[in-house]
C-alpha cells in the first residue's frame, strides 16, 4: 500500500473509475484522516482535472439530502475563497432574481475565508438558519426562494470538514458547493475565483449534466462577474462548453474599482444588502444588476444582458426584492 493508503497515487491523472472509487471511499469513511489529507494535498499541488472534479461532485450528489424544486429553479452560487472580502453579491442576486419570478434554490454556507458568508449575512437580516433549512422546500414552493445550508444537506462531509480545517489550504472540496446543490437544479450561475480554471470547471459541469449554466470569474480572481475589468465566462449546455468574455459595458453598466464593493463583517454586509434592496444606488447595486442579468439569461427569462439589467432593476425599484426578503424572514 502506498503512502496514500486506499487511494491511487495522484501524481498521475486519475481515470474515471479511480476518481469515483477514491471519493466514494473518502466520503464513506474508508480511509484515515492522514491518508485523506495527503491525497487532497497532492491533488491540489498537481491541479485537479475535470474528471476528478466531476467525480468528487458526483460522490457528494449521491450522498446528499435532497429537496424537491419547481421547474425552472436555478442556483446562483460562488465557490468563495477569492480573498477580496466583497459585499455579498450572490446572496443579493438570489433575492433579486427570485423577485423576478425565477425560483432560486440558494446553496451556501458560513464564511470560510471572507468576513461574512451568505448564511452569516442572512442571519443578521433575521433569517433563522435552522428553520430555513427545515422549511427550504416549502419556502421554495411558496416564495420562490430558499437557502440550502450546506452543513444540513451533506452529512457525508462531517468527517471531512475537520481534515480540511487542519490542512488550512484549498482542496478540491472548495470547488464543490455549486456542483452539489440539494435541489438538483439544472440551471446555474457559478462563480469561481480562478479565471484560468473556468474551462476545466465548466467541462466538469458539462459531464455532470446541465440544461444551461454559466461559469464566471473576474480577471482579478473574483468569484462573480466583476465591474472592474474583464471576465471569463463559460456557457455550458448539453451540446458542450463555449468560452466568451464579458465586460460591464456589455450590460450597459459603468466600470467600477473593486474597492467600491469592499465588505465588512456580517452586520456591515447585512446593512448594505438591505439598503441595496431599498433602492440605494452605487457600485454594489451595479454589481448585483450585472450578475443578476447573467442569472436571468441562464434562467431563460431574458435574451440578453441589457434586458436582464432592466428587469433586475425593476424588481429592486418597485420594492419587490425588499418585500420578498421580508416575507422570507417572516415565513413560518
UniProtKB/TrEMBL annotation:
Domain Glycosyl transferase family 3 N-terminal residue range list: 14-63
Matches recorded under InterPro entries: Anthranilate_Pribosyl_Tfrase, Glycosyl_Trfase_fam3, Glycosyl_Trfase_fam3_N_dom, Glycosyl_Trfase_fam3_N_dom_sf, Nuc_phospho_transferase
Family: In the C-terminal section; belongs to the anthranilate phosphoribosyltransferase family.
GO biological process, alphabetically ordered: L-tryptophan biosynthetic process
Subunit: Homodimer.
Residues annotated as binding 5-phospho-alpha-D-ribose 1-diphosphate: 78, 81-82, 86, 88-91, 106-114, 118
Source species of the chain: Sphingopyxis witflariensis
Protein name as catalogued: Anthranilate phosphoribosyltransferase
Cofactor detail note: Binds 2 magnesium ions per monomer.
Binding site for anthranilate 2: 164
UniProt pathway annotation: Amino-acid biosynthesis; L-tryptophan biosynthesis; L-tryptophan from chorismate: step 2/5
Function: Catalyzes the transfer of the phosphoribosyl group of 5-phosphorylribose-1-pyrophosphate (PRPP) to anthranilate to yield N-(5'-phosphoribosyl)-anthranilate (PRA).
CC annotations in GO: cytosol
Binding site for anthranilate 1: 78, 109
NCBIfam families assigned to the protein according to its UniProt record, in alphabetical order: trpD
GO molecular function: anthranilate phosphoribosyltransferase activity; magnesium ion binding
Species classification: Bacteria, Pseudomonadati, Pseudomonadota, Alphaproteobacteria, Sphingomonadales
Reaction it catalyzes: N-(5-phospho-beta-D-ribosyl)anthranilate + diphosphate = 5-phospho-alpha-D-ribose 1-diphosphate + anthranilate
Encoding gene, per UniProt annotation: trpD
